[in-house]
Request: fold
Amino acid sequence: MKDKWRLPLILLLAFLLTACGAAPEKESGDAVVVGFSQLGAESSWRMANTASIEQAAAQYGFGLMMDNANQKQEKQIAAIRSFIAYRVDVIVFSPIVETGWDNVLREARQAGVPVILVDRMIETADDSLYTAYIGADFYAEGRRAGEYLIRKADALQAEHLNIVEVSGTIDSTPMRERQRGFMDVIQDDPRFTVIASVSGDFLRSKGEEVITGLLEQYGAEGFDVIYSHNDSMTLGILDVLDRQGIQPGTDMLLISVDGEKEAVSALKQGRINCIVQCTPYLGGSVMSLVQALKDGRPVPKVSHPVESAYTDFDDLSDPAMEGF
Ligand code: AHR
Reply:
């Protein structure tokens, strides 16, 4: 068998056997194996994030057992259990919601498998259940969205703006923190009222559905600003505004988060006013933590990538502002 196929085939076989409850254990001396539970494939952000983790694992020469949970927490818990049974060296996972992980993480700790949280955080009274967290500072992202709105309202000399929020998956870290950061910045400013907040689950189709409902309920004159927690939902929202003859970017201000190519090009066309950057490229940082654990070096408990925002106040001809 060609060497390049050996590790992927062993991992595939091990994973299938694990799923059937008959897991062979990893032999000591084998290459480092990382078990990665990805939460789904709901957005371009998520696809780029998965690719980044896969590429980085390959660059470091680590084996990757990867499971996509298709937005189901039970599937993530089952995947983590199978990684424990296989005795991977490190478990990496991106928790879909914040609560409900303590039991399975206790099992990982008992088995001596370190856990790295990537992208999203968990809510737990015992933070020794994970070794490290690497992901965006979602609270700072929410604040950036609010700060942009204040600057825009000043520039427009707006007296009052009604806002609708299309939020991400309920109880996920980006949903909670992007909301909290935004509200902390705008809530004491009498020019702003958030008239509705509805979850669109980070999905383009749901973004469309939610904005259609809000337009039916309030009418196009009923609100002036849409704060959408990710670009996928924003792109769905743009489709609806176009169909209804509402001019995004002028009739209605749009604030989004992520930095997907399609959204960045809508920003350049003046159809989105602000995109708060959230980088999906976390793979290199995750694998460097895995390497540090393998070498017995200490790792930081929490690390955030450096991020900023792209807005209609900026020079949008910058080629670096391209998106993923
Ligand atoms: O957890 C990160 C968020 O999840 C991204 O903003 C979003 O696009 C994704 O689905």
User: Anything to note?
Assistant: Residues 42-43, 45-46, 119-120, 174, 202, 230, 232, 257-258, 278 surround alpha-L-arabinofuranose (CB under 6 Å).
